[in-house]
Amino acid sequence: TIDLGDPGKWHHNLTTSMLYEEIVRRGEGTIAHLGPVVVHTGKYTGRSPGDKFVVREAGSEKEVWWDKVNRPLPPEHFEALLGRVQEYLRSREIFVQDCYAGADPQCRVSLRVFTERAWHSLFAHNMFIREMDPEQLALFAPDWQLIYAPGFAAVPERDHTRSEVFVVIHLERRLILIGGTSYAGELKKAVFTVL
Fold first, then answer.
1. Per-residue pLDDT tens digits for 105-139
2. With 80 as the cut, is the pLDDT of residue 45 above it?
3. Which residues does residue 147 pair with via DSSP β-bridges, in sequence order?
4. What pLDDT was estimated at residue 4?
5. Which pTM was predicted?
6. What is the pLDDT of residue 68?
7. CA distances for 41 relative to 54, 77, 130, 150, angstroms
8. Which of 94, 153, 168, 184 could form a disulfide with 123 if both were Cys (CB 3.0 to 4.6 A apart)?
9. Is the pLDDT of residue 1 over 70?
10. Rounded to whole angstroms, what are the CA distances from 119 to 67, 102, 114, 116?
């Protein structure tokens, strides 16, 4: 179970227009002529492939191509980092999107995306396939969960990361943890890596 604080502060599966309102209300971005959302990603304007890690655990260790792109992270370092991210997010509003990656029902992955920013939730809402049936959405059970905390910067000496940015995939727990960057492409690419 992912403990991100009071579920009463969570915004579940907001529509596009509701997310637009939240983005403007929270000062995360502006609406440009003809409707696109304009945001600033900060100093990271692209992916940080050197900051991607895969948790090295017995169940998947032999399935991963370990190299400078798939850096190993011991499970105990992952758990410590996850705990710090959870603590950081407990005092914040959380945006949740339930969606699918992959169009073929036999191959797709169901995904629950937790973000601290409305615009990242809008990115997930647009990037992935939404469940349009309200009854099915009420029964939604994700295969994978993704926690995106762009405002949380890792401390490399403490968190065993390369920089303040981290993208960590835990194959056994089916959990993706991203932080230290606002570049939304990390969300997409991490899910594509899982696929």
1. 899 999 999 999 999 999 999 999 999 999 999 99
2. no
3. 114, 177
4. 86
5. 0.94
6. 84
7. 24, 27, 25, 10
8. 184
9. no
10. 32, 22, 12, 9
- Both structure tokens of 144: 């994978």
Q: What's the whole-number average pLDDT of the chain?
A: 93
Q: What is the DSSP string of the chain?
A: ----S-GGGEEES--HHHHHHHHHHTTS-EEPTTS-EE---TT--S--GGGEEEE--TTTGGGS--SSSSEEE-HHHHHHHHHHHHHHHTTS-EEEEEEEESSSTTT-EEEEEEESSHHHHHHHHHHSEE---HHHHHT---SEEEEEETTPPP-HHHH--SSS-EEEEETTTTEEEEES---THHHHHHHHHH-
